[in-house]
Amino acid sequence: MSGGELVVIGNGMVGQRFVDALRARDPEGGWRVTVLAEEDRPAYDRVRLSAYFDGVSADELNLHTPHEGVRLRLGEPAIAVDRERRVVSTAVGEYQYDALVLATGSYPFVPPVPGTELPGVFVYRTLDDLAAIRAYAGGRRVGAVIGGGLLGLEAANALRLLGLSTDVVEFAPRLMPVQVDQAGGAMLRRYVDDLGVRTHLGVATTAIRSGPDGGVAALELSDGTAIDADLVVVAAGIRPRDQLARDAGLPLGPRGGVLVDATCRTADERIWAIGECAAVDGTCHGLVAPGYATAEVVADRLVGGAATFPGADTATKLKLLGVDVASFGDAHGTTEGCLDVTFTDPATRVYAKLVLSDDARTLLGGVLVGDASAYPTLRASVGGPLPAAPLALLAPDGGGADAGALPATAQVCSCNAVTRGDVDAAIADGCADVAGLKSCTRAGTSCGSCVPMLKQLLDAAGVAQSSALCEHFDLSRRELFEIVQVRGIHTFSRLVAEHGRGRGCDICKPVVASILASLGAGHVLDGEQASLQDTNDHFLANLQRDGSYSVVPRIPGGEITPEKLIVIGEVARDFQLYTKITGGQRIDLFGARVEQLPQIWRRLVDAGFESGHAYGKALRTVKSCVGETWCRYGVQDSVGLAVALELRYRGLRAPHKLKSAVSGCARECAEARSKDFGIIATETGWNLYVGGNGGFRPRHADLFATDLSTEALVTLIDRFLIYYIRTADRLQRTAGWIEAMEGGLDHLRSVIVDDSLGLCADLDAAMARHVSSYSDEWRDVLDDPDRLRRYTSFVNAPEVPDPSITFVRERGQPMPAGGTQPITLGLPEVRR
Amino acid sequence: MNPTMTRSWTTVCTLDHLDPDRGVAALVDGVQVALFWTADGLFAIDNRDPVSGAYVLSRGIVGSRGGVPTLASPLHKQVYDLRSGDCLDLPGVAVARHDARCRNGLVEVRLRQEG
Ligand code: SRM
Ligand SMILES: Cc1cc2nc3c(=O)[nH]c(=O)nc-3n(C[C@H](O)[C@H](O)[C@H](O)COP(=O)(O)OP(=O)(O)OC[C@H]3O[C@@H](n4cnc5c(N)ncnc54)[C@H](O)[C@@H]3O)c2cc1C
Ligand code: SF4
Ligand code: FES
């Protein structure tokens, strides 16, 4: 049998993968496929479901690809299977099959306690569930999650993101009981505590109680206590959806699920089961990787192949809470005679355990909490020899865990069952980057946790990874900078014609715009340069989610006169802007429409304000503490220096934004060590720190030079900044730039202190040019009718304000009307 | 499959209101349209970013991908084929395309609406 009518019940992750896999193996279309789906939308990425609360839209989670010869019946669940007549019936019709594939997934298990039917009690499985949770959460304050496993913690994080304080109730004595051991669970709990999520361990929920409005109000626990909750998510486990099979008289697994053999076939030779609803040799798997494996097996079998289920990889990694937790292989050490090596560091809050075979030679599994950087390599080494000595592997930076040491049989990507051998073969066939490996092998296309390892394997194979900026330029930013500088090129069109191809894109155009601006090629909105600017530079303001803009005037060092404060207040009042004090010691005014920007800036410029470059990859703020002028501990004038530095470097465009701060003594109230360049006063001068940042990957700045005079300090910063601007990669902050520099800080010192490359005079001159040619971008716009004419709502109706921008008032201020999804400022590492 | 309803041409502005590779927004029969003048010609699409729902596409960056003239949304950078409106990064997502032409130095737009 390798053709005919095929019916698939369920269009979830595995059902979709099955159809993709079958179409790839059956290009002639021997099988005509009908997919019956219960949900109203085609397959989406359930694994990343929680990202929905981070502002990722339902569209972005879509996994569905349409195929010829496959009809998808959305919102049409199968009701019964008649094995004798070989038809599946739905509410609207019957579908004849020669082969039938069950891919119905699981349903959330809801424990039988009173009150689960109350309004405000939800499960966490589908996009519709999440949309209902979001809608109900509006205006409510306290949430609770029943279940402290992987899913329960994800749900708890979701409630936090929705602004609810959150309790988690877990029956087991630790969090994530399936994946981690007692010690790991204890470490994990400390992180969860820090997030403000309260945990109740070793207790069961005995009842859910309603309040006066009829909705849920509290949980009663088995220890006699109660907790308030006006929204409850039940995440207490899942059960396979095997009802159709049960009704059709097919055998089930010992704990439910459609019983299939290693070929994923049921007792009926025309019926197969895949994904979470299948009990393969009696066991159901609640993860996507084994589900994908079953999809591949059945696709292969249906075209006459002989594939069998390869066994399940149950490795898991906690996503989204910002806590590294990973568990893989025999994490609980159940293998006869196994040994374990553990490492606990309460100070850095790292716990790690490796489970080894009785001869300590083979890695069987492990648990990592607090630092899971070694996870990809370790997981791939399970069942094989250790890639390094156990202690080196457990060292917190995962330094010993290099993918280069893995054997060819090690599974590098478990989501897609790709081995190191497969990756090496693809590299030998010419794959030269991660994108290539993804499309050749599928590795890295699901959860993404193996991507760092793909990079290491490319390195290990000696493949120099392309530094090409994008499809239009084979050069890196640094190389482009040199060309622009040396050849004196002033336009993108000439640069792309002579050194690239095509018409550019949203990657290379802003890079070139930034290079031209760094080299002082005139106003950023002039002529062709205007079309290169990134979103925010386009109108010299920060684009907001509703299409309006924010305005941030510069307040050097955070020092401001009462008169200027009043002007900001008046402007905000007159234009009805939302105001907020920023984390950078200045004031942000939100909700301005394009055509209002010049009027707002006219008022601000007339009062002596200038652009704060909050929109640019440029110097942002130089924060200050109050320093010796007022503070009883201060030893230098930190505000004075901060103001001077901010005025010196204002308007300086760079590969990424630049931040700085000056503290008046070692107590460090200005947080200078979290800045690209930070200065801390000493009794005799200034200490300079470089390469710090907060944000996505926080890093403390390194001490670069001590006890400098103000003049020597400024010279070093001048050189540091220009050297960075000339040689860093696109969107590389100073921290990454220094880390990637061969020779690191010592090399940097030799270049800008000892002048080992003979560059210093040139760097000094470049900064002098910047300082003397600075002029306020906004003033320049206001003075020029040609630049001003851009600031209109509609080219044919300049007097009509954009009707899509509307506000509601909250806490006494205007806020965007129409939904308050959380904004994503940067994606945590675990997401693709 | 859906019948396409065509409307009449509306004059929007003179060509010198447009800068090469930089979009503008226009109101045509109450619909917000983003208009671009690129080396491949004039293009008009809905101003509404289908992913975020904000009316901002006129402020995106114009470019090319493998020879196809493109526009990147300014909000989250999804790239659209200016000729068809199809999103090149998200399968199944597209922005409505309208007709644009230049006659006697005047830029004209005609809405194309599925309906
Ligand atoms: C307004 C403000 C939040 C606040 O209300 O306090 C803010 C708002 C934004 N931040 Fe921030 N950041 C603000 C302080 C910070 C800080 C704290 C600080 O500077 O002291 C940090 C961490 C410190 C750091 O940068 O190292 C911070 C780390 C980020 C990051 C992550 C950077 C990283 O290297 O990982 C981004 C994303 C990026 O730049 O690519 C970001 C990006 C943004 C953007 C520009 C996102 C965007 O492109 O739309 C937001 C613009 C809002 C607007 O329209 O004005 N913001 N942001 C703060 C403005 C300070 C100012 O006056 O300029
Ligand atoms: C929030 C969350 C986070 C997760 N995180 C991870 C993770 O990090 N790692 C991991 O490996 N796994 C994770 N999972 C599990 C993973 O999503 C599942 O293993 C995977 O989706 C299983 O795929 P499936 O196709 O078997 O089932 P599903 O994706 O559930 O699809 C089954 C589909 O069948 C439909 N259906 C059911 N009955 C019928 C019927 N009678 N007729 C028609 N259609 C029907 C259902 O409506 C559903 O759309 C997570 C799950 C959730 C909910
Ligand atoms: S850093 Fe020092 S001088 Fe500045 S406010 Fe703090 S204690 Fe005072
Ligand atoms: S391990 Fe998940 S994508 Fe490779």
From TrEMBL, chain A:
Record pathway: Nitrogen metabolism; nitrate reduction (assimilation)
Keyword Methyltransferase appears in the UniProt entry: no
NADH-rubredoxin oxidoreductase C-terminal domain location: 315-380
Reactions catalysed according to its record: hydrogen sulfide + 6 oxidized [2Fe-2S]-[ferredoxin] + 3 H2O = sulfite + 6 reduced [2Fe-2S]-[ferredoxin] + 7 H(+)
Cofactor: [2Fe-2S] cluster; siroheme; [4Fe-4S] cluster; FAD
Record EC number: 1.8.7.1
Signal peptide residue numbers: none
Gene3D superfamilies recorded: 3.30.390.30, BFD-like [2Fe-2S]-binding domain, FAD/NAD(P)-binding domain, Sulfite Reductase Hemoprotein, domain 1
Disordered, as annotated region: 811-832
CDD domains xrefs: NirB_Fer2_BFD-like_2
Occurrences of domain Nitrite/Sulfite reductase ferredoxin-like (ranges): 544-605
Domain BFD-like [2Fe-2S]-binding positions: 412-459
GO molecular function ontology, one term from the record: nitrite reductase (NADH) activity
Alphabetized Pfam families for the sequence: Fer2_BFD, NIR_SIR, NIR_SIR_ferr, Pyr_redox_2, Rubredoxin_C
Keyword set, alphabetical order: 2Fe-2S, 4Fe-4S, FAD, Flavoprotein, Heme, Iron, Iron-sulfur, Metal-binding, Nitrate assimilation, Oxidoreductase, Thioether bond
Top enzyme class: oxidoreductase
Location of the Nitrite/sulphite reductase 4Fe-4S domain: 616-752
The keyword Metal-binding belongs to this UniProt entry's keyword annotation: yes
Residues of the FAD/NAD(P)-binding domain: 6-278
Family of this protein: Belongs to the nitrite and sulfite reductase 4Fe-4S domain family.
Function: Catalyzes the reduction of sulfite to sulfide, a step in the biosynthesis of sulfur-containing amino acids and cofactors.
Protein name: assimilatory sulfite reductase (ferredoxin)
Gene behind this protein: nirB
From TrEMBL, chain B:
Domain of life of the native organism: Bacteria
UniProtKB keywords: 2Fe-2S, Iron, Iron-sulfur, Metal-binding, Nitrate assimilation, Oxidoreductase
Domain Rieske: 10-109
The keyword Hydrolase is assigned to this record: no
InterPro entries linked to this entry: NirD, Rieske-like_NirD, Rieske_2Fe-2S, Rieske_2Fe-2S_sf
Annotated Pfam families: Rieske_2 (PF13806)
PANTHER family reported for this sequence: NITRITE REDUCTASE (NADH) SMALL SUBUNIT, PTHR40562
Protein name in UniProt: Nitrite reductase small subunit NirD
Gene responsible for this protein: nirD
